[in-house]
Amino acid sequence: MSRRLRVARARRELDVFLRELRAEGPIGFVPTMGALHEGHLSLVRASVGECARTVASIFVNPTQFGPGEDLAAYPRPWEEDQALLEAEGADVLFLPSAEEIYPAGPRAFIDVADLSGLLCGAFRPGHFRGVATVVWKLLQIVDPDVAYFGSKDAQQAVIVRRMVKDLFGRWTIRVLPTIREKDGLAMSSRNRYLDPSERAAATVLFRALAEGKRVLESGERKAGMAVRAASETLAREPLARPEYVALASLADLRPVEEARGDLLFAIAARVGKARLIDNLALRVGERVEEILP
Ligand code: PAF
Known about the structure:
Blueprint (H helix, E strand, L loop, with lengths): L5 E3 L2 H12 L4 E6 L5 H13 L2 E6 L19 H11 L3 E3 L3 H4 L11 H4 L3 H4 L3 H16 L3 E5 L3 H13 L5 E5 L19 H6 L2 H14 L5 H13 L4 E10 L11 E11 L2 E11 L3 E4 L2
Parallel strand pairs: 1-4, 2-3, 2-5, 3-4, 5-6
Antiparallel strand pairs: 7-8, 8-9, 9-10
The structure holds pantoate (PAF).
């Protein structure tokens, strides 16, 4: 059922809406940077199904972009996004300006230091500090009962969970499965940057992960062998410029030598103008099972 979506650009305006919504039961929150796709919409659907009211935010957070990254070019199809949120039954969209979130400029930060320099963090210095800071601010502002995140950004999900746990946040963090195109490509706002040949090449991230998983399924437990199989698949795609392939512990994101327990098989590569990431969270024991990060 579609409900009318109300848009708040200022915190004060949002507070008025939130007072009303809170009286009606638990609030679910879906933070986004917009350019919404099925991955985001699956989070909105979960919130609408599980909570009395749903708030989404669209904020292209400057502190999580490094110099030379795509902050200015990041797609901002906000009218289309609003229509999608309304059709899914979201109640409120928080659409703040940078001044609303960083009134005095970015000054105080949250850094989950032992996790934020690993995997993608090694290639995007400061990125996860920006993410943790803005997510903490948004959680403080909206103060939801449940906040929803996608598994495609597994490192982000692990960092947000750890931040909320270590800083005694009161919010429940729910992490939901990656939504994929039919050919396996993980949905991402950055897929919009791909031309048709790059779009075809971009499936190599998922194919590489699937190849690494197949190695584990064959009974191999040397992490290096699975990483090598994935890396070789990635290297065969001339349009992909690999950044990393890693098999890491899901608990602390550090690379493992022996592939056992709850693991994150993570990959990042540049294809054309897009930096793409993908991952599989795996429970490796006798068998290999996909899990949520
Ligand atoms: O995953 C994203 O879109 C962003 O990193 C988030 C969580 C909205 C913070 O800016």
